[in-house]
Amino acid sequence: MSEYLQRPVQTLSGGQEQRVAIAGALAEACKALILDEFTTFLDESDQMGVIKAVQNLLDISEVTALWVTHCLEELEYADGAVYMEDGRVITHGDAASISKFIKAKQSLYIHRINS
């Protein structure tokens, strides 16, 4: 992001702003990151790259990240997950079991609408 160092903030895209905000939090040596839909403004091609970069930083530092997402592909980078509906915790566990739970709910929903 060094190429954006001298640019006014208002000239940055949403994705660039997201990256700068994450970089700033990491530069401040924070112990926890709360990332709410942090890939939303990124191009699809950039989303996984940013997730992998954040994951690599988390792996080599003592920073904990909690991120909110609707993107099931991001579960593969999680140590654990919580599934919520209407602000209530429905289930929680390791990422694989939550992914399986969500896919089962999707399958049931699809079966209902096709019946």
UniProtKB/TrEMBL annotation:
Cross-referenced SUPFAM superfamilies: P-loop containing nucleoside triphosphate hydrolases (SSF52540)
Transmembrane segments: none
Annotated ABC transporter domain residues: 5-39
Taxonomic superkingdom: Eukaryota
InterPro entries: ABC_transporter-like_ATP-bd (IPR003439), Molybdenum_import_ModC (IPR050334), P-loop_NTPase (IPR027417)
Pfam family, one: ABC_tran
Gene3D superfamilies: P-loop containing nucleotide triphosphate hydrolases (3.40.50.300)
The protein's name in its UniProt record: ABC transporter I family member 10-like
Species: Gossypium hirsutum (Upland cotton)
